[in-house]
Amino acid sequence: MRNNSYTALLVGLLFISAVAAAVQVLRLSFAMRDLRRIQPRIMENSAKLSLTQALLNDTLEYSKRNPAIDPLLQSMNVKTSSASGAAGPQPVSK
After folding, report:
1. What is the pLDDT of residues 33-79, one digit of tens each?
2. What's the CA gap between 50 and 94, in Å, rounded?
3. Against a cut of 0.70, is the pTM above it?
4. DSSP 34
5. What gap in Å lies between CA 81 and CA 51, rounded to an integer?
6. Do the beta carbons of residue 50 and residue 92 sit within 8 Å?
């Protein structure tokens, strides 16, 4: 009799473990599907960010030769005014 109760307990634990594993596999499957679905958008946004950073860095470099663009850059908080400190413009790092 006692052997039967241990066997039933072990079978129950095995069943619970199998259900928990199945739930985790389903969660992983859904997460991977979502990742595959949004990955092209992530890559597109990354490319746009790189392009924007390059454009901003080129604009800051341009402002060194042509300071007429400085008021526009200052209005966008990209470049600080020359009178406020000795530090020059801080290019955006990737």
Report:
1. 999 999 999 999 999 999 999 999 999 999 999 999 999 889 888 88
2. 7
3. no
4. H
5. 25
6. no
